[in-house]
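Give me the fold.
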Amino acid sequence: MTQAVLATRTAALLRLVASSPAPLGLSEIARESGIPKATCIRILRALVEEDLLEIDPDTRRYRVSFALTALMADRVRADGSIELLRRELDRLRAATHETAGIDLLIGDDVVVVLQVEGPQLISQTGKPVPRRLPLLRSSTGKAFLTWHNDPSIAAAAVAALSPTERSRVAEEQATNRQRGYAVAFEELDPAAAAIAAPVLVHDAVICTVWIGGPSFRMTPEEIPVLATHVVESANRLAILLRTGQVSLDDLPSAPMKEVS
């Protein structure tokens, strides 16, 4: 195979995967492109190694990489930031098999502003976006209280608590800082659990990213494993925000529904 033919086929496979609304498997790619499967797999492996494509380790299906999407974010349509944020949530959902979202702190309100439903729709189904969450009983509220630079927010949140409850909250925040994430287990819902991590830019928490699902799946034993994916996602979002590749300006700015 000449270099020109190889380049043409590489471009054809990249274009095919990029234009597909869903990830594609090797057989689909070979069939749609008309390129032999053995040649396809060599090209696809090279594109994955160059971080232009990603392969799902479970389904073995290919899609455009996060890195390439980020690189082209400023060249896509006007809602490129939201599309890129949603792509990161898709990645987090795929890694954890749970609903994933991004929250903002607007005034004293924690607001869910972006959410992708998990593949196993239990517990999170049908909840509106945007919506409000309580600071003390949600994982994302706990994350804001732990990492926010304004101590008055945390002070106001715990003002009505007893000394014993305030001590418990302080201990939980110390644990959160040590491990890098916050957890709400059967607090908002007796059958649900959630994990949230702060997205920190220059030591300021800009937003939080989270996953949520039923507590029979998100057990105390599973939470540390799942949390590694949430923290990784928070770090990736921090890079995008710090470099200006995404903006939160187009996300909803006012809460509409409240979850008590």
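The beta strands are 24-25, 53-55, 61-64, 99-106, 109-116, 131-133, 182-185, 192-201, 204-214, 257-258.
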